[in-house]
Each structure stands twice: as C-alpha cells, then as structure tokens.
Amino acid sequence: LKTDHVTPETAAGHAKVPTGPRPVGIGLVGAGYWGRNVARNFLDCGATELLWLCDLDESAAARLVGRRSEVRITSELDKMLADSEVEAVAVVTPPRTHLEVGMACLRAGKHVLMEKPLATSVAAAERLVATAAEMGLTLMCDHTFCYTPHVRRIRDLIHSGELGELQYIDSTRVNLGLVQSEVDVLWDLAPHDLSIMDFVLPPGLVPVQISALGADPINVGQWCLGHLTMPLSNGALAHVHVNWLSPTKIRQMVFAGSRRMVVWNDLVPGRRLTIFDAGIDVTHVEGDERARRMVGYRLGDSVTPAIPESEALAAVVAEFAASIREDRAPLTDGRSGLRLLRVLEAASMSRRGHGALVPLELDGRE
Ligand SMILES: NC(=O)c1ccc[n+]([C@@H]2O[C@H](COP(=O)([O-])OP(=O)(O)OC[C@H]3O[C@@H](n4cnc5c(N)ncnc54)[C@H](O)[C@@H]3O)[C@@H](O)[C@H]2O)c1
Q1: Does ligand 1 lie within 6 Å of residue 92's CB atom?
Q2: 144 lines ligand 1 (CB under 6 A)
Q3: Residue 69, Cα to own-chain centre: how many angstroms?
Q4: Is any atom of ligand 1 closer than 6 Å to the C-beta of 115?
Q5: How far, in Å, CA of 104 to CA of 53, rounded?
C-alpha cells in the first residue's frame, strides 16, 4: 500500500472480515515518520480498529488521516484517553516523551505499544514495566526486526538446536547515516541488533559483560561509530558494529554455531538468509605422550530457504492485539525493552571507562 494518506479507501483495499474476537480499539500518539507506518498497519489489521490519532501538531495528524477519514484527531492526549472505546494506545513519539506519555496511558487503564527504545533510562523503563504489571495491562515494545520472518527463522534455528552450540554473533549495521542531535549512534542503531539478540538467544544464554568503544571523527559531540563487545554466559562472544560514517550500507548478522552457521543479509530481498553447513571440528586424541589435536574442516552445502517476504510492522500490530485478547505477554514485552536499556546504560558506563568491561545482569529471560 503506497499512500501518504490513511483514508477509508486505503483501508478498504484490505477489507476487514469480521471474524474472531472484537477488534481492539486503538489510539495512536505521534503522527511523524514512523507513526505513519504504524497507522497504516493498524488500519490494515483486521484485529484492530484505529479510532484516534493524537499529535501535538494537530495539522500533522490531519494530514496523515486525510480529510475523509473517520479516525478522530486531537492534540490533547487526555481527550483521547477519556474515550472508553480506546482500549490500547501506540506511543510513536520521540524517546524523551515515552515515560510521560506511556504513564498517562497506563494510568488511564490502556494497554500500551511503545516504540523503541522503551524509555531513555533503566529507571524510567522500570517504572513503565512496574505500572503495567500493577494495573494488569499489556506493555509491548515495538522491536520491529523481531517480527521479520527471517529473524523468526533464526530464532527457530537456534532454539531447535539446529545451529548447535552458539560460538559467536557478529552484527554490522553501517551506512552514511543521519547524524542525530538527540542520540549517539549506539542509541540510534544498536537497539536493533541488541533487541534481535535478546529475541533469538535461548533461555539461560545471556550477555554477561559489555565493552563499548566509539569515536567522533567529525566533531559533532557524540559517537558516530561504535563497537560493542559482549561475552555471553556460555563463553561465546557477540560483537556489534554501528556506524553513521560508512560509504556503503551493510545490514548483516552472522550467528555461528557448532553445527551450522547462518548469515542474514537484510539487503538481499528473496535471499536474505543463508545457512551454511560449515565449521571446524577439533578432536583431541588422548593416549599419546603429548595430547594431539585433529582439526577437520567442514565445508558442506549452503542453503537459502524460501522465506516469503512480509511487513514486520503488520506482525507487530497483530501480536499486540492478540496478546491483549489472549491475556498473555507479547513476544517483545516491556521486560525485553527494559533489558535493552540495561545493555545500553552499561555500554554508556563502559564508554566512560574507555571501553572497560562492565558486568550485565539480565534477569527475566524466559
Ligand atoms: N521500530 C522502528 O524501526 C522505528 C523506526 C523509526 C522510528 N522509531 C521510533 O518511533 C518514535 C518516533 O520516531 P519518528 O521518527 O516518527 O519521529 P518524528 O519526529 O518523525 O515524529 C514524532 C511525532 O510525535 C509528535 N509528538 C512529540 N511529542 C508528543 C507528545 N507529547 N504528544 C503527542 N505528540 C507528540 C511530534 O509532533 C511528531 O509529529 C521514536 O521512538 C523512534 O525511535 C522506530
């Protein structure tokens, strides 16, 4: 659906068939760049009904919905929250507003879908998670990449044991990027890599330390490139390279296991994922005076699974609605957003210590 306006006509292109539970009444806060995509997906989803669009800039909201839309617009959050038809709110405003807007929604008894990052500090994220739990409400984070079919497949490969014991993760997310004024490159780009790692790692396997190094070669007052190194609890190593100053765009993650290795290159539609039957097997031969090592190189087939392309945000909004109706935690709940902030804050601490390893305590992964 390629349109700048969300109108009844565009929604009608994906006619809603009234089957299953009642659609979840949605209010959306934030009619900016990402809010436009979120609005389109709520309109297309049969399990949700977009009722309100709120933005401080009411004209931005009006432009987004178009003149003939039945979606109500307002610049006053309280007005939207007073509508009992609104069961849930998607917060798509800048990160510095997430705590205030999110708390207002939760206190009004609304389920919340919060954009990444959940908040700008661990303390703020803890308040959101605790309030949602106290109120018995769903708090979900839009960790969008976790809802791509490719990341879902990587998760299945790791969880089913097909990759074997995880040996390392190597992630590269670089391009000639938009130098941001509010956040550095770690806070801008690394949430994607870190939320994917959090999503695909099996229960009990977590990063236990983090070292962060970065640089600002163009003198903008914050890191424009950064490297995160994280030892995992099984002895494996994860590395993330994020960079706004790269002449080429690279979006690649490698997950190496003892049995298989998988490479996800997100810039090659139709062939994004390749699974390699490759690795090095080492056998220790005992009995000799000196223990000997036999090294065998495994270079088997590589497979590119046929994975249908689909929009991740469509799966995000469907999961939000399903978790509310089924009264269960969403796949990326508030606690996953909180863990992400613990890693980012520890990275900032390591940065102050010039890359020193900082311990991580990431409890609550199931
Ligand atoms: N999941 C993803 O892949 C992804 C991609 C892009 C952005 N995002 C996230 O989406 C959020 C918004 O980013 P964006 O690029 O759309 O920003 P944006 O600046 O384009 O839009 C933000 C909008 O929020 C409005 N706003 C600000 N404060 C408000 C408030 N208190 N109440 C109501 N409206 C308010 C602004 O007027 C603006 O229209 C951020 O948290 C960002 O990290 C996520």
Answers
A1: yes
A2: yes
A3: 30
A4: yes
A5: 16
For the segment 85-106, the average pLDDT, to the nearest whole number, is 97
Q: Separation of 327 CA from ligand 1 center, angstroms?
A: 27
Q: Say how many Å lie between the CA of residue 153 and the centre of ligand 1.
A: 29
With the most atoms of ligand 1 within 8 angstroms of its CB, the residue from 92, 144, 148, 184 to mutate is 92
Q: Which residues contact 227 (CB under 8 A, 6 or more apart)?
A: 212, 213, 214, 239, 240, 241
pLDDT of residue 285: 80
- Given a contact cutoff of 8 angstroms between Cβ atoms, the answer to whether 187 and 116 are in contact is no
Statement: residue 79 has pLDDT above 60: yes
The answer to whether the CB of 142 is under 6 A from ligand 1 is yes
pLDDT the model gives residue 69: 86
pLDDT tens per residue across span 9-28: 444 444 444 557 899 999 99
Bridge partners, residue 298, by sequence: 279
DSSP characters over 93-148: S-GGGHHHHHHHHHHTT-EEEEESSS-SSHHHHHHHHHHHHHHT--EEEE-GGGGS
pLDDT digits over 277-313, tens only?
A: 998 888 888 776 666 788 989 899 999 999 999 999 9
From 93, 98, 195, 344, mutation site for ligand 1 pocket: most ligand atoms within 8 A of C-beta: 93
Ligand 1 atom at minimum distance from 144 CA: 1
150-181 burial, b at 16+ Cβ within 10 Å, e below that, comes to bbbbbbebbeeeebeebbebebbbbbebeeee
Q: Is the pLDDT of residue 6 over 90?
A: no
By three-state DSSP, how is residue 5 classified? coil
Tell me, what amino acid is at 237? L
Angle at 130 between CA 23 and CA 143, to 5 degrees: 55
